[in-house]
């Protein structure tokens, strides 16, 4: 991926970088250029070693995958998303339409979120047909972002700044929380945005344009981010390229939300508009949503920590504009899950912010404000120290605890026994606990989300956290599916497996529907 940025695109013209190499330990440029964005050393790409960053990336990939894999092996998935994405990738791997029965029998997932780029994981799934393969892919994509961010920083700032930023990015809370949240499609956006920002900083504007185009295939809202890339190109002097890219981003954003997703949705609309205009059952006007963007301490805390992890130097760079579209819909949302520092929503902001940090330091080294020039000298190690210090309160700290690697506890053994009681190829209705362990070779439904299907098996974890304790699991299964009868097949610990004793329905919702 780095080759496009090295390929010599835009070799001539005002965007060309200086050819001289001041060396990795060159002193800051202190000429009286004020806050010129070109202030400071810029190393030749050929002089910046790649090996240290590949080693750092491999280490980070291993850490991310270890955390994700052992969380999965201990049946600790925090949501249904890993199962959803495995069903999607499994469909692509079989050259089928991306039907995700967890969202509803026969549900076409492109009518939920528009993420066709996930199909790129099909070859990996042919080799390793397991949810764990998705966790590995995400770990590799996040680590690739670290390689791009770190090496670009060293090219811009010299010295040891690149490895410091690699550590700061790799341990950032946005990445760690995304690792904890299992797989999500935004993993593809992380290296792509890193490459976009790298190209902008190195003034390779055609490369920036090309790297931004695939973002519209990652998730429906990223068309707005592409439009901001176009705006930056326009500001940097590439007016035609910038205007065309901005228009493309806006058009892709509108077309995806208004045409493509509604066309794929059985409801004929984009369901997530309700995240902005409804708070529970109560309607919320757009004006109230706008006025309420900072109506929660959770939102304010998130914003402070977003900029704080860069030692606040990201505020010195125009690249920070790229985070506004994502922050915009999150702050407008009425769903509190979008506001804070948990889940995966901030991962795509990390490469932007840390390359904005590098740009901010470069711009500040020659500042006529002595305090700012002095602070720029220490901002990178400060950001690295912040990331290391915060890790004691973040997911990767669990890798230092022996219990993280224990998958032979009574709960895990009971869960595996329940899996063994569920035949391959069967249709299973279950909760989050077992879900991602079943999606590779069974048809899986969300418990309570598949009326009329009379699945072969209903498997539940009684300790899942039900609103009401389930006293009689068989009665519960028959309450979900009054068209069928069930009997207890297996019970171990809190895990219960019921099998259907009546014939399969002649017509199963979502099966054979064209």
Report on the architecture of this protein.
By secondary structure, this protein is mainly α. 48% of the residues lie in helices and 6% in strands. The protein contains 20 helices and seven strands. The strands form two sheets. Strands 4-3-5-7-6 form a five-stranded mixed β-sheet, sandwiched between helices. It has a two-stranded antiparallel sheet with strand order 1-2. Strand 1 (278-279) and strand 2 (282-283) form a beta hairpin. Helix 3 (81-93) packs parallel to helix 19 (432-438), helix 6 (161-170) crosses helix 17 and helix 8 runs parallel beside helix 16. The two termini are 39 Å apart. The model is unreliable at 1-40 (pLDDT under 50).
Strands, total number? 7
> Termini, distance in Å?
39 Å
Tally of helical segments: 20
Q: Topology as H/E string?
A: HHHHHHHHHHHHEEHHHHHHEHEEHEE
Largest sheet: 5 strands, mixed
DSSP helix fraction: 40-55%
Overall pLDDT: 90
Supply Rg.
Answer: 25 Å
Query: Which spans of ≥5 residues are poorly predicted at pLDDT below 50?
Result: 1-40
Order of strands, main sheet, comes to 4-3-5-7-6
Indicate the overall shape: globular
Class derived from helix and strand content = mainly alpha
The portion of residues forming beta strands comes to 5-15%
Please provide a brief summary of the model:
The chain is 48% helix and 6% strand. The chain has 20 helices and 7 strands.
Keywords:
globular; disordered N terminus; 514 residues; 5-stranded mixed sheet; mainly alpha; 20 helices; single chain
Blueprint of the fold:
Elements: H1 2-6, H2 51-73, H3 81-93, H4 122-127, H5 131-157, H6 161-170, H7 173-180, H8 189-201, H9 205-212, H10 222-235, H11 239-264, H12 274-277, E1 278-279, E2 282-283, H13 286-291, H14 297-308, H15 324-332, H16 349-365, H17 370-390, H18 410-420, E3 427-430, H19 432-438, E4 443-446, E5 457-461, H20 473-480, E6 486-492, E7 495-500
Parallel strand pairs: 3-4, 3-5
Antiparallel strand pairs: 1-2, 5-7, 6-7
């Amino acid at each position: 991926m780095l080759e496009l940025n090295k390929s010599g695109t835009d070799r001539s013209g005002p965007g060309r970088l200086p050819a001289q190499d001041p060396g990795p330990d060159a002193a800051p440029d202190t000429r009286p250029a004020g806050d010129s964005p070109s202030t400071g050393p810029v190393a030749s790409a050929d002089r910046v070693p790649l090996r240290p960053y590949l080693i750092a990336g491999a280490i980070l990939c291993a850490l991310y995958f270890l955390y994700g894999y052992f969380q999965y092996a201990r049946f600790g998935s925090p949501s249904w998303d890993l199962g959803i994405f495995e069903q999607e990738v499994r469909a692509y791997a079989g050259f089928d339409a991306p039907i995700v029965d967890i969202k509803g029998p026969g549900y076409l997932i492109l009518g939920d979120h528009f993420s066709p780029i996930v199909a790129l994981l099909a070859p990996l799934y042919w080799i390793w047909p397991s949810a764990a393969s998705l966790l590995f892919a995400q770990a590799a994509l996040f680590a690739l972002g670290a390689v791009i961010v770190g090496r670009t920083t060293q090219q811009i700032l010299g010295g040891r700044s690149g490895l410091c930023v690699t550590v700061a990015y790799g341990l950032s809370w946005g990445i760690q929380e995304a690792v904890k949240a299992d797989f999500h499609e935004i993993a593809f956006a992380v290296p792509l945005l890193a490459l976009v920002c790298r190209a902008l900083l190195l003034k390779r504007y055609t490369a920036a344009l090309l790297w931004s185009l695939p973002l519209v295939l990652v998730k429906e809202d990223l068309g707005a981010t592409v439009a901001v890339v176009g705006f930056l190109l326009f500001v940097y002097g590439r007016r035609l390229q910038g205007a065309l890219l901005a228009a493309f981003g806006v058009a892709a954003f509108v077309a995806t939300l208004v045409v493509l997703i509604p066309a794929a949705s059985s409801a004929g609309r984009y369901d997530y508009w309700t995240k902005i205009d409804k708070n529970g059952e109560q309607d919320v006007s757009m004006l109230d949503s706008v006025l309420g963007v900072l109506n929660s301490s959770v939102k304010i805390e998130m914003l402070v920590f977003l900029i704080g992890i860069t030692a606040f130097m990201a505020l010195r760079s125009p690249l920070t504009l790229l985070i506004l579209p994502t922050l915009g819909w999150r702050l407008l949302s009425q769903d509190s899950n979008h506001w804070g520092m948990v889940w995966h929503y901030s991962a795509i902001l990390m490469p932007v912010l840390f390359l904005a940090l590098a740009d901010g330091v470069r711009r500040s080294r020659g500042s006529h404000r002595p305090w700012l020039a002095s602070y720029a000298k220490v901002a990178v190690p400060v950001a690295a120290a912040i990331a290391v210090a915060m890790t004691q309160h973040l997911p990767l700290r669990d890798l230092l605890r022996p219990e993280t690697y224990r998958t032979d506890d009574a709960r895990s053994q009971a869960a595996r026994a329940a899996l063994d009681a569920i035949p391959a190829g069967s249709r299973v209705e279950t909760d989050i606990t077992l879900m991602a362990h079943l999606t590779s070779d069974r048809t899986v439904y969300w418990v309570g989300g598949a009326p009329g299907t009379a699945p072969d098996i209903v498997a539940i974890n009684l300790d899942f956290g039900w609103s009401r304790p389930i006293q009689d699991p068989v009665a519960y299964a028959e309450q979900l599916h009054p068209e069928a009868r069930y009997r207890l097949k297996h019970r171990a610990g809190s895990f219960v497996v019921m099998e259907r004793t009546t014939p399969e329905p002649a017509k199963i919702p979502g099966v054979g529907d064209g």
